[in-house]
Amino acid sequence: MLHAQSGSTLLRESPDGTTVPASGRKRGRVRFLLPLTFAIVVGFVASCFPANAATSVVMGGVGNVASLSKASGMAIPENRYARLNANPPNTKMINVEPNGNWASVAGAQPGSATWNNLVRWGNTLKSRGGTIWVAFGHEPEAHASAGMGTNTQFIAAFRKFVSVIRSTGEHNVQFVWQMTSYAFQVNSGDRRYAPKWYPGSAYVDLVGADPYNWYNCGSGRGQWTQLSTLTQPALNWAKSQGKGLVLGEYGSQQGPQRAQWLRNAGTWARANAGTLKGMFYFNVGPQGPSLGCHWVLSSSADLSAFANGVAR
């Protein structure tokens, strides 16, 4: 997961709560779908959205999507991050980070800078065609977000964010509540326990999770874990709430098994297309010698495996 702190510094958090710098800049993105058959996919272009969410999954990227698009032979949608006081990126998915803490958003009143920014976002987004996924304050339970406030303040801020944007008359935004995948695995006594941060079904259109196969980097313990295993708890929780699931970020540490891991991820995505709506590979890095994580897909085998998941 990424967190923006101290201006433009981006941090990624491991399941154990440690945070490290991520060298990738905020990312851009277009969009693309992964229908169950390649014939359906070919008929779409970068500006298209899923025609049938029950039978297609948006397969996108974060960071360097150019290489993913080149390998796939088609435009790959992007998940981009932006501050509330910036202009909304013209992409399929946007992660919005507030300029202050959550209380500043929750307490925003008409005429204030925060309120005006919320209205501006709503007016800008509603002028665009197609469905846009918008996540507010992603991974609020993570250590990197500790200075933002409590879970109660996050819930109030999320509700304010949604309510003001909806008040502009937008009809094309689906709001994503984006957590780490780990938040769906811990027990109910843990402060990170996902339900403690849930704003409520009236304010959430899609559940989000960010699963990573750390393997031998960061907090990894040398265990190679499939995306299906990492994501199953979040998938189950989304189903229990009658919501679709979006993986705003997902990735795997490099290794000889990564190409197969990516192919398995594509197979899993197709098998769960009824609930899974989209997934964006975290093609950003490197993350520094101390962490040793290399998420970027650079080998022909890895890129071919990613493209295989997109095309089928």
Please outline the helices and strands.
Layout lengths: L1 E4 L3 E5 L5 E3 L11 E3 L2 H5 L13 E8 L1 H8 L6 E5 L9 E5 L4 H5 L6 H14 L5 E5 L14 H17 L5 E8 L25 E5 L1 E2 L13 H14 L3 E9 L5 H14 L4 E8 L16 H12 L1
Parallel strand pairs: 5-13, 6-7, 7-8, 8-9, 9-10, 10-12, 11-12, 12-13
Antiparallel strand pairs: 1-2, 2-3, 4-5
Q: Give me the CATH superfamily.
A: Glycosidases
The ordered H/E elements are EEEEHEHEEHHEHEEEHEHEH
Q: What is the average per-residue confidence, as pLDDT, rounded to a whole number? A: 84
Beta strand count: 13
**Given the C-alpha coordinates, what overall shape results?**
globular
Termini separation: 27 Å
Rounded to an integer, what's the Rg over CA atoms? 18 Å
Q: Low-confidence parts, pLDDT < 50 over ≥5 residues? A: 1-11, 18-55
How many helix segments? 8
Structural class, please? alpha/beta
Helical residues, percent: 25-40%
Largest sheet: 10 strands, mixed
Q: Write the CATH architecture name.
A: Alpha-Beta Barrel
Describe this structure in words.
With about 300 residues, the chain is an alpha/beta fold. It has a single domain, classed as Glycosidases (TIM Barrel, Alpha-Beta Barrel). It is built from eight helices and 13 strands. The protein has helices at about 40, 65-70, 100-105, 115-125, 150-165, 225-240, 260-270, 300-310, and strands at about 1-5, 10-15, 20, 35, 55-65, 80-85, 95, 130-135, 175-180, 205-210, 210-215, 245-250, 275-285. Strands 4, 5, 6, 7, 8, 9, 10, 11, 12 and 13 form a ten-stranded mixed beta sheet that branches. Strands 1-2-3 form a three-stranded antiparallel beta sheet, with no helix packed on it. A hairpin with a 5-residue loop joins strand 2 (about 10-15) and strand 3 (about 20). Helix 2 packs across helix 8. Mean pLDDT is about 85; it is low at about 1-10 and about 20-55.
